[in-house]
């Protein structure tokens, strides 16, 4: 088992502390909320089952990640689009996560419509599981996926945060260019 060394840092946000996990190339591997360290570790073990994931605390947040998140929370919703990511997971999970990143800020998709979009309309439940295993919250915007009846459904960071993120994006996506 080859060890994967990731740097774990913390960043404040309007919705509480953010946990960032980056590799040595400063690619974002995971983003979660403070208090969810155990969930992050579990996701990393599941996504890299053949490797020993080692998380080392760091006080330094890679500048590209810190700058993009600050800009996003300041209302520049496209600031996250250029962040370099590195993903583990299965081929299907990566397909779902890529589809998440294509949902425009300020809009939402239902699980069913997202499953149809990736050409797997019968895979709604599997898509929901992949969405729930998303390691890079906000950047891979799983918060933009809602129920078919437009209800807010599960979000690992809590429904209040999901609601805040959607309202933040709705407010800022309507700004004139």
From TrEMBL:
The record, for HAMAP family, names: OGT
What Pfam families does this protein's entry cite?
DNA_binding_1, Methyltransf_1N
GO CC annotations?
A: cytoplasm
Origin organism of this chain? Comamonas koreensis
Q: Which family does it belong to?
A: Belongs to the MGMT family.
Function as written in the Swiss-Prot or TrEMBL entry: Involved in the cellular defense against the biological effects of O6-methylguanine (O6-MeG) and O4-methylthymine (O4-MeT) in DNA. Repairs the methylated nucleobase in DNA by stoichiometrically transferring the methyl group to a cysteine residue in the enzyme. This is a suicide reaction: the enzyme is irreversibly inactivated.
**Residue ranges annotated for the Methylated-DNA-[protein]-cysteine S-methyltransferase DNA binding domain, each copy included:** 91-170
Per UniProt, subcellular location reads as: Cytoplasm
Q: Which GO terms describe its biological process?
A: DNA alkylation repair; methylation
Q: Which residues form the signal peptide?
A: none
The record's active-site residues are 142 (nucleophile)
Query: Which InterPro entries is this protein grouped with?
Result: MethylDNA_cys_MeTrfase_AS, MethylDNA_cys_MeTrfase_DNA-bd, MethylDNA_cys_MeTrfase_DNAb, MethylG_MeTrfase_N, MGMT, MGMT_N_sf, WH-like_DNA-bd_sf
GO molecular function list: methylated-DNA-[protein]-cysteine S-methyltransferase activity
Instruction: Write the Enzyme Commission number(s) for this entry.
Output: 2.1.1.63
Q: Does the keyword Methyltransferase feature in the UniProt annotation? A: yes
Location of the Methylguanine DNA methyltransferase ribonuclease-like domain: 11-86
> Could you tell me the superkingdom of the organism this chain comes from?
Bacteria
The miscellaneous annotation reads: This enzyme catalyzes only one turnover and therefore is not strictly catalytic. According to one definition, an enzyme is a biocatalyst that acts repeatedly and over many reaction cycles.
Keywords from UniProt, A to Z, are: Cytoplasm, DNA damage, DNA repair, Methyltransferase, Transferase
Identify the CDD domains for this entry: ATase (cd06445)
Name of the protein:
Methylated-DNA--protein-cysteine methyltransferase
Describe the reaction catalysed, as an equation: a 4-O-methyl-thymidine in DNA + L-cysteinyl-[protein] = a thymidine in DNA + S-methyl-L-cysteinyl-[protein]; a 6-O-methyl-2'-deoxyguanosine in DNA + L-cysteinyl-[protein] = S-methyl-L-cysteinyl-[protein] + a 2'-deoxyguanosine in DNA
Query: PROSITE patterns attached here?
Result: MGMT (PS00374)
């Amino acid at each position: 088992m080859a060890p994967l060394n990731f740097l774990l840092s913390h960043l404040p946000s309007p919705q509480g502390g953010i946990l960032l996990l980056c590799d040595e190339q400063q690619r974002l591997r995971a983003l979660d909320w403070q208090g969810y360290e155990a969930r992050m570790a579990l996701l990393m073990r599941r996504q890299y089952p053949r490797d020993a994931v080692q998380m080392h605390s760091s006080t330094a947040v890679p500048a590209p990640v810190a700058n993009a998140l600050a800009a996003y929370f300041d209302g520049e919703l496209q600031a996250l689009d250029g962040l370099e990511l590195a993903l583990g997971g299965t081929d299907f999970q990566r397909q779902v996560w890529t589809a998440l990143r294509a949902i425009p800020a300020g809009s939402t998709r239902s699980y069913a419509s997202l499953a149809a979009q990736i050409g797997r309309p019968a895979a709604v439940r599997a898509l929901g599981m992949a969405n729930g295993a998303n390691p890079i919250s906000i950047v891979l915007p799983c918060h933009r996926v809602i129920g078919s009846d437009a209800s807010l459904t599960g979000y690992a960071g809590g429904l209040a945060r999901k609601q805040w993120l959607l309202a933040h994006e709705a407010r800022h996506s309507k700004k004139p260019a």
